Amino acid sequence: MGKIYNDFDKIELVLDKTEYSIEDYKYILGKIKDEKSKLMFYYKVMFDNTNDAYFSLNLEKMMYFDSSFFSVEDKEMFNYINFMIENNNYKKTIYIVGFPEDNNSAIWKMLPFILQKRGGLDVKCIFDDIDINEKYTFWCEKEIEVKSLKKMLKYKFNKDALFIIANPNYIHIKSFLINELAIKEENIFCFYYNGICQRSIQYFSEPFIKIDNNEILIDGGASDFETTLSFLDFCNWSYEKIWTIEPLLDQYRLCTQKTKELDLKNINIENVGLWKSEDELYFNIRDYGSSFISEKGDVKIKAKRIDDLLNGEKATIIKLDIEGAEYEAIEGACSTISKYDPILMLCVYHKKNDILKIAKKVLSVNSKYTVFIRHYSYCINETVMYFVPRKKLIKYD
To answer: Which domains, from first to last, does the chain contain?
Structure first.
């Protein structure tokens, strides 16, 4: 039986209506090192062009965290995703119960793949802290009806459905479902979002990358400074230079404050965005940190090219999580990528077919890279594509 990522006739049909060809797919696939990355590449390309939750769930199933969990809830979440895939249970009715207070973080991480409405999937959301029925538009921009947990006794609902509890206070909600609503415990799944996307694990811990004590890091999209801190941990706080790039003023100030508190040396903190040219751009600000460039944005930011920031200097690692501007930032870093072969750690989930567009661009600039792909969350977000030069490549099976 052939590998599914080599089913070129099927993949070509999917790519036929895009600007990408099966030859593009084959070329990138040929640069990918390991079996896991090849499968992830296939699932991501197929999901981007079919919007079928089956492919996203398989991508999530292959997370790096298949043997490392931060909590019982994390492990339960992972195991249940496997169960849903194997049994096609993602097609059944799902009630999402008890949103957490911290900006619904658990829910908006889950909704992009849960709300695919594939195969008759019926999703209903139930808040434990409202008295009336309302409609909400979530991060996935899908308006769905939200009911009150307090009035569940009056509802007619499917007791054989899957009940996903997303709330730190899941114990009392689970008790209510079992004792008051007679829901079977095997139909209740508790998911308290507890750090599976922690950046301390993402990027630098991968077994195929060699991190030395003389690295020059560009942290594009520094946000809360956690990626820079993670880098410091992995290089034992021994490095040559760090460029921390953050366009939003509040986050920039936070990075500056942490740098002073830690008394870090040889670090440049730049209050700019990364782009294909020197420019002024508008940012659409979101409360939970996923701000992005938009013509109708809330604030104006300055943007620069990586090549101009470095001004001919070397970089050995470039990490980009810049909310959909990764491709343009690569366009502005072609000289650096061509001349110095830096490790590239690029998020490829913000826009449809970023995984093809960005890979094609990078490899056109520097074809010597070996490519890996890893996924870091229980939803379709946090897919990272790694481009590793031979000198930084650890033998990995």
So the answer is: 72-190 (3.40.50.720), 216-392 (3.40.50.150)
